[in-house]
Amino acid sequence: MSEVVTWRGKLAITGIGLVTPVGLSAAASTAALRAGISRIGDLPGFTVPNAAGEPQPATGAEVPVVPGNRQGPARLLRLAEQALREAVGDARLSQKQRCALLVGTPGPNPARRTLSYSAVLSQGLERVLAGLVGASRVQLFETGRASALQALRMAANVLTMENPPDAAIVGGVDSLINPLTMRFLQSSGRLREGRKSTGILPGEGAGFLVVETPERAARRGAAILATVEAAAGGVDLTPANKPNRAVVLGRVLRGIADKLTDPAMLIISDLNGERHRAYEWMFASTRAPFFHSGTPHWLPSESIGDAGAATGAIDSAWAVTALRRGYAGGSEALVWGASDEGPREAIVFKRAMGGS
How would DSSP label each residue in 154-209? Predict the structure, then answer.
């Protein structure tokens, strides 16, 4: 059984940036998600065969600003750069700050690709970051849907090590809107199409959060949007798309349960319409002492489809915004995620003292 690793402490979120199918900024995206606005519809240029073998439009949600013929790492870099620039600007970072960039990405061979995006993504992100902040380094977490949450948990270690960077910029980027991924999902029966009521509606996006220790944020006069106060993660080796009794996810959730004390807490997750994932949450929730039937559970996939490795960052930015703006309903938010590649992660966010 996978070991569950937990972290306790306090980190400050001082900036967020998002690019999603429902908005080209964090403010626009989170407002649209709150309002239930959806961009899910026909995907131009993408078809799937119907029951008769005839082509029909595929359904999903794409970011309209990205040219349809731009695929692979070029598409991911276009998405990531815009969200990264917004997060850095929101936090008012400058060339004076030394930053670590921790980015969740697709697995090294998603949808059975033969080429890895890792080197191109790392080099492109390094170039973008070099023009925004001081000395920096890039680390990719190639673990799929929960990777941005895994990166956020690891940021706690980065910020407390000897000679730490001034800040960590944590996020994720992904696009399921490409021919290889669409064919893989369709051939494996995981694409929602035709009359199917379950399955994945492909999406895409990018999101970043600037994370600092509260002391460093206070010294430079940064506004604290929310805090991170606990994290836990483990690995579930149950094959993707197979029944999962949530043994690991249940242990991960119990690992942060003591930090969830507000009965009006909020949950945001990457549930994406696949039946086996809903069953996993059903089993996990029975093992979560903080959960009750009235706990609100928000699902960005209802508006933007499955954004893959970007989902954890999108969920986290929405949690931070909801706590800051006061529409979360309480003072705490739990964000959890599960990857086909195995990771199960959970993060506890809390409203910043004095936040509006």
Answer: HHHHHHHSSS--SEEEEEEEEE--SHHHHHHHHHTT-B--TT-SSSB-B-EEEEEE
- Predicted pLDDT at 354: 62
How far apart (Å, rounded) are the C-alpha atoms in residues 145 and 54? 31
CA-CA-CA-CA torsion for 44, 48, 53, 54, nearest 10 degrees?
-10
What is the chain's mean pLDDT, rounded?
Answer: 92
Q: Is 210 helix (H, G, I), strand (E, B) or coil?
A: strand
pLDDT at 323 exceeding the cut of 70: yes
Q: Could you identify the residue written with the tokens 């403010």? A: 27
Rounded Cα distance between 170 and 231, Å, is 14
Strand 266-269 and strand 204-212: the pairing is: unpaired
Q: Torsion angle of alpha carbons 27, 30, 34, 39, nearest 10°? A: 110
CA distance 209 to 313: 7
pLDDT above 60: residue 111: no
The helix (run of H) or strand (run of E) holding residue 16 is strand 5-19
Task: For residue 123, give the nearest of 95, 144, 103, 150 by alpha carbon.
Answer: 103
What pLDDT, on a 0 to 100 scale, did the predictor assign at position 112?
56
Q: Scan for tokens 């569950």, then name that residue.
A: 4
pTM: 0.95
Q: How far apart are the first and last CA of the chain?
A: 42
Instruction: Identify the bridge partners of residue 297 per DSSP, sorted by sequence position.
Output: 267
pLDDT tens digits along 24-33? 999 999 999 9
Q: Inter-axis angle of helices 26-35 and 311-325, to 10 degrees?
A: 80
pLDDT in the model for residue 126: 94
Residues 83 and 207 sit within 8 Å (Cβ to Cβ): yes
d(CA 195, CA 192): 8
User: The tokens of 320 are what?
Assistant: 């931070």
Could you tell me how far CA 57 lies from the centroid of its own chain? 27
Given the structure tokens 């920096």, which residue do they identify? 136
**The token pair that represents 351 in the structure block:** 């409203």
Q: Which of 183-197, 289-303, 311-325 is the least confident region?
A: 183-197
d(CA 253, CA 354): 28
